[in-house]
Each structure stands twice: as C-alpha cells, then as structure tokens.
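Input for the complex:
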Amino acid sequence: MARAVLSGNEAVALGVKLARVQVVAAYPITPQTTIVEKIAEYVDKGELKARFITVESEHSAMAACIGAAAGGARAFTATSSQGLLYMSEMVFWASGARLPIVMAIVNRSVAPPWSIWCDHNDAFSQRDAGWIQLWAESAQEAMDMVIQAYRVAEDEQVLLPVMVNLDGFLLSHAYEPVDVPKQEVVDRFLPQKTPAPYWIDPSNPKSYGTIAAPDTYMEFRYKMQAAMENAARIIEEVDEEWGKFAGRSYGGLIERYRCDDAEIGVVLVGSWAGDAKEAADELRKKGLKVGVIRLRATRPFPAERLVEAVEGMDAVAVVDRSLSPGLPSVLTAEVKAALYERARRPLIKGFIAGLGGRDVTPLDFAAVVESTLKSLKEGKGGIVWFGLR
Amino acid sequence: MASELPLTAIAVPAKGAAGRTGLWRTERPVIDYSKCTKCLLCWLYCPEGAVVRRADGNVEIDYDYCKGCGVCANECPIKAITMVEEVS
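Predicted:
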C-alpha cells in the first residue's frame, strides 16, 4: 500500500491500470479527458500492457470495446455528457450482448444550454440500457469501484457492463489522498479474465446479436433482469471481499451514514454525500437526528436495502441532481415506489438541486432537512426546486 | 424456455437455418446450358449462395433456398438465365 495525492480522474486511470485492462478505446470530452490521457501515458511508458485505440467518436469507442470484450479482452472506456448520448446505441448493444465492459462516466450536464459542469442527467439518460450503474463519492472510491466493477461485470451470474459514475470537476479534478493497493493484491482480487464459452472463437464461428423473433426476445430480456438481480447480491459480496483485501469497503449497494437512530434521512447519489454528512453532523449537534443514505448503485435499484435503511425514519429527503422534465424527479419516484408496499412509510420530499453544476453546500443540505421537517409538520411531501433563482 | 437459451442471441452457421426460403419464390431462374459459358458471374452475385458450382464446372440453382430475386438473370452477360413464373 502506498499513499498518493490523486485527482478523481487519475484515481480512475490508476484503477484501470491495476485491473490490467487490455483494450482501451476512447474519444476525448471534458471533464473525462484526463482519464484516458493518463491511461495513454501508462500504455506509452509500458506500465500498462494494453491496446489503446484512438477512435473518431464515442459511438466507435463503445463499438471497439464491444469487439474487444466479445473477443475475450478486458475493455474500458470513459466519457461524459454529449459523448455518452452519442454512444447510446452501442451502450444498449453492449448490455444486450452481455459483455462485461467497464465505462467511467464523469458526470456532466447535457446541452443546450452548453455546460461542462456536473449533474447526473447524462448517466440517468441511459438508466434503462441494462448497464449496472454505480456512483462514487471520493477519488478513493472511484479507484476501488473500477476494480470492483470488473469483478461484478465478469461474474458468470452477472455478465453485464458497468458504469462507474463520478462527479465532473467535484471529483474528477479535485485532488485527494488515495491509498493505492499493491498490484499483487489487485491481481489476487481480480484474476486474469477468462473468456466465457460463447466468446468469439475463430475455430468455432458463430454470428452474434442475430435476430430473436417474438417467440424468444422476451426471454433474452428476462435474462438481463435476472442478471441484475444477481448483481445486487454480487455487488455486496465483492465490496465486502474488497474490504478483506484492501482494508476498506463502502456498504455494498448503499452506504448508511448515521441512520440507525435517524428520524430524518437524506437520500442521494454521488460526491455531495460528503456535504450532506457534514450537515447531518452539525444538525445532530443541535439535537436533530439526521442520517444520510447514499445509493452506490441505482441499477440494480437497491429497493430492499432502502426499506431497511429508512426503518424508523419519519421523513426522507431525496436530493436529485437530474431532471426528468414533466415528472420531474425519477430518483424520488423510484424511492417512493420502493417504499410503497410498506405499511409504515416515511414522508418523502423530493428536491431538484445542483443542475448544471450549481453549488450545493452543507448549509444547503441543512436547509433541505429544515424544509423536509416543515413538510412533515404539514403532512405533505411533493417535489420542489432547491435554490431556484 | 429461458433456461434453454444462451445469454445473448447467437446463430451457428448452418444451411437453411431459417427454413426452406425457396418457398418464398414467385419466379425461378432456369439456366440454358447450351448458352452458358461458365463465367461464374451468377455464382458470384447470388446474394443467398443458392448458385452452386458442380465438379464439372457447371453451375446449378439450389431451388430449396433460391428466393427467385433474379439477380443472376440480370447479371448473366449472355442472357443464359431466364426467370420463369412458378405458377402461371
């Protein structure tokens, strides 16, 4: 173990190196670019024995990863925002073809208006693609998550691609101390990839992604759902096992921060969990029992774990950094759906916040909690825009 | 049912995996061997691989899988292939 000061993007690149990825195909886009720049440097120096394919678009980047993964190689790419949207057709292909690709999404809002700053709409636009979606809070977790992601993706009970999300600039370009595990530790945790029996084999030619008529298509999609259900278990097992190898784990599907006796909970994904935790600490000094529930996975959606986490809470604030115009918060809707079957469920209030990189501070999270308490007294939840000018 | 399927749609190369597509045909190509020069353009252009080369160098149509598209008749430089209606 060594300690290094790394940006979130450098931590991801180091995770890719430690995972001994064999093929990287990427197209630059802010704020992702420094991930693949760093990987290119590793490849150039011979520190990572990988084929680095420079492509003409994100669509081609994912297509190259699909080819590489179908050929049995461990493949990686990274993108953001418009790049992910341009890649979308191939994103769906990768999951339908059941290829264990890992992709870092450095979350950035979608244009227009043009914006390079953080929100989560880019990744959530691909919510139904059949990719496992994980969310990091720190540079350390982003590195660990890349390594964990390959274990999850390549598990024979899963075989689905994984998106590792990290907040643009807030994580990608912020420097933090990161504990870097030794290569041999990662090698033991994540053995060399062995191709599954249906990988492309020139001596046994087959056509992949062929037509499935109405008599079989549903069954192929059912298998993806079954794999997601397996993934929910595997994500927890892999995170727990990582704890034994690296000395740290993150709670599996969700992280519960001071939730055991909490009366108010804040549910969210991403790096601003740190601000919410700081707010919870401050509010507890004033006697308010506040906890933070950070979803590490949104696909598979950790409904069971969420039910356990809110046990005993009177109210829950869902703080969503994405917008589904006309709903407007899918994260709030999913939290509500997960808790609907419960006889006793907390009041749920949704907040649309931080779109386009608008700063949300610990003081703001304290205001979110106050607003939720007010709604609790009035007995009415709903969804509000936080900090709208 | 689902347990019998692979994880993703895969096809193994096999003759006629989609059934006898020759049943789709409304017109059949007929070769006049007195004109045929064995140039093999029909064999080269057939999109279905339904023009078969025989050991003696002649070509013949595999009517089990020929869909009757007429590409061979169109490409034949000496018009040795005629399209004949299946049902007149």
